[in-house]
Specification:
The chain is built from 16 helices and 13 strands. It has about 375 residues and is α/β, with parallel strands linked by helices. The protein folds into 2 domains: about 120 residues, Aspartate Aminotransferase, domain 1, CATH 3.90.1150.10; about 240 residues, Aspartate Aminotransferase, domain 2, CATH 3.40.640. The protein is globular and about 55 Å long. The N and C termini lie far apart (about 50 Å). The relative contact order is 0.18. Bound molecules: 4'-deoxy-4'-aminopyridoxal-5'-phosphate and glutamine.
Length: about 375
């Protein structure tokens, strides 16, 4: 007899990314759902990994991550955000951004703690909170700009509030935080015991010359924050699952206690290769221009369709209303257009635990121009 499992996540099914990519494969649809590029990553970086493997970089690196990589990250952070970060005590390399977020939440949350989450929210946040026995406190971003209502944040803070979660540039909406948001955040957390978890995996994918409001720019916020990044997004290699977390030395001691008994350390050859590759500023500085061109091209193409695109200032994503086409719920609509028209998207209500359905689907535009053209050729028929 198989002993029954008492589920730690009783309300969770399969992620919407898995469902929509599965459906896309089954129906040979063009996949503008799950966020990953369909163009190649850097040849130079791939060759570098190969080269270091042949040089023997195939055993464990230290638990905190390969030191020259942490040094390169610290240099880059200081160059971009003007803050000195100590690579030995403030940076840990992780197997992806999702893992960094999970580890940070596990480090700080106790059962019954409250965590403020803005919805729509990246799908891992709420399960990560709940698996730690903590309670998500859900606040809708203001539709359709997806801005934070800071007055509501103030109203929802209680003596149990332990963490506020941020994500800029934002998945799924492409909204970005501005300087005023950071001022509001500073004034709210000052003299409290509230931590911040800042998901900045799209730090380099921000458009229209808007500066990325990294927590790393604000030392008073950084000391209470876990800031999470992903190399997968930066270097078009989402399958590498490599990222990192930056925090204060005090919080990093506790983060590493959790990390060392989970992954312990990450893939060695990619860390050794990235340590050098990160010094190439052009490789990450050119990203926003390249991705902005893709956004603009997609926006232009979509004018031929009955979708009404919302604004996207960053990330891989842009959302679209479809009320000129149908009044179906977004999940039914997304499934139907995958099956009938051969284009997969992500229904945005999947990012709301509250079930809010603004009748919006998310498109991923980090694709070859031919892919975007082929998808729009199908979407004009709807
Ligand atoms: N946060 C957000 C908002 C994301 O979109 C992603 C992308 N998958 C991640 C975290 C996780 O990145 P990784 O694949 O490195 O775990
Ligand atoms: N971040 C990607 C997205 O939002 C997918 C990640 C995943 O499949 N878990 O589409």
């Amino acid at each position: 007899m198989i002993p029954p499992v008492q589920s730690k996540l009783p309300h969770v099914g399969t992620t919407i990314f898995t469902i929509m990519s599965g459906l896309a494969n089954q129906h040979h649809a063009i996949n503008l759902g799950q966020g990953f590029p369909d163009y190649s990553m850097s040849e130079e970086l791939m060759n570098k990994v190969n080269e270091v493997m042949h040089k023997g970089w195939n055993q464990y690196v230290p638990m905190q991550g390969y030191m020259p990589l942490r040094e390169s990250i610290a240099e880059k952070a200081e160059f971009l955000y003007g803050t000195k970060i100590f690579p030995d005590t403030q940076i840990t390399i992780t197997p992806g951004g999702t893992y960094a977020i999970y580890t940070a939440l596990t480090t700080i949350l106790q059962p019954g703690d409250e965590v403020i989450v803005f919805e729509p929210a990246y799908d891992s946040y709420i399960p990560n909170i709940e698996i730690n026995g903590a309670v998500p406190v859900l606040i809708d971003l203001q539709f359709p700009e997806y801005k934070i209502d800071w007055n509501e944040v103030r109203n929802r803070i209680t003596s149990k509030t332990r963490t506020i979660m941020l994500n800029t540039p934002h998945n799924p909406t492409g909204a970005v935080l501005g300087e005023e948001d950071m001022k509001q955040l500073q004034s709210i957390v000052k003299d409290t015991n509230i931590f911040i978890l800042s998901d900045e995996v799209y730090e380099h994918l921000i458009f229209d010359n808007i500066p990325h409001q990294s927590i790393l720019r604000y030392p008073d916020l950084l000391e209470r924050s876990f800031v999470c990044f992903s190399f997968g997004k930066t270097y078009n290699c989402t399958g590498w699952k490599l990222g990192y977390c930056i925090t204060s030395p005090e919080l990093m001691v506790e983060f590493r206690k959790v990390h060392q008994f989970n992954a312990f350390c990450c893939h060695t050859p990619s860390q050794v290769a990235l340590a050098e590759f990160l010094k190439n500023k052009e490789a990450y500085l050119s990203l926003s221009g390249m991705m902005q061109q893709k956004r603009d091209y997609f926006v232009q193409l979509m004018k031929q369709t009955k979708f009404d695109l919302l604004n996207s200032s960053g990330s891989y994503f842009i959302c679209a209303k479809y009320d000129r086409i149908s009044d179906e719920g977004d999940k039914d609509f997304a499934v139907r257009i995958t099956k009938e028209f051969g284009v997969a998207t992500i229904p945005v209500s999947s990012f709301y635990k509250t079930g809010t359905d603004n009748k919006v689907v998310r498109f991923c535009f980090s694709k070859k121009n031919e892919t975007l053209e082929a998808a729009v050729e199908r979407l004009v028929k709807i």
